[in-house]
Amino acid sequence: MPDVEDILAAVRRACLALPEVVERPSHGTPSWFVRGRKTFVSFADRVHGDPHTAIWAAAPPGVTAELVAAEPRRFFVPPYVGHRGWLGLRLDLDGADALDEVELAGIARDAFRTIAPKTLARLLDA
């Protein structure tokens, strides 16, 4: 099982690579905000009875249901924010389901695009 600090470092790399992103605690856990205002990813290390280390990320419409149905071991509907379309991704799995930093970066980018103003999100295409 991957180390929690290594997982957190990978999430930080993925999120802080995006424009105008700020990290700060929210509800006792590291979270990443667009322009310091709107959360797009939160780190969830064994919270609310879940035995996993994961992220909760904003997701484009329909993506959460699709991914949870396709891969329920890796993806889940997170509490509190899942009803708004957010996606949970377990990051502490081994084997074929192990942390993939390229996939993690893609999910962070999609979450950023979902929350960021369109002018800021377009910077990702430049």
Please outline the helices and strands.
Blueprint: H1 4-16, E1 21-26, E2 29-34, E3 38-45, E4 53-57, H2 63-70, E5 75-76, E6 87-90, H3 101-115, H4 118-121
Antiparallel strand pairs: 1-2, 2-3, 3-4, 4-6, 5-6
Helix pairs in contact: 1-3
* CATH topology label: Aspartate Aminotransferase, domain 1
Q: Which word captures the global form?
A: globular
**Number of DSSP helices?**
4
Share of helix, binned:
25-40%
Unreliable residue runs:
none
Instruction: Write down the secondary-structure element order.
Output: HEEEEHEEHH
> How does the major sheet shape up?
6 strands, antiparallel
Q: How would you describe what is shown here?
A:
The chain is an alpha+beta fold. It has a single domain (4-125), classed as Alpha-Beta Complex (Aspartate Aminotransferase, domain 1). The protein has 4 helices and 6 strands, in the order αββββαββαα. The chain has helices at residues 4-16, 63-70, 101-115, 118-121; strands spanning 21-26, 29-34, 38-45, 53-57, 75-76, 87-90. It has a 6-stranded antiparallel β-sheet. Helix 1 (4-16) crosses helix 3 (101-115). It is globular, with a radius of gyration of 14 Å. The mean pLDDT is 95.
Which key features would you list for this structure?
single chain; 126 residues; alpha+beta; Aspartate Aminotransferase, domain 1; 6-stranded antiparallel β-sheet; 6 strands; globular
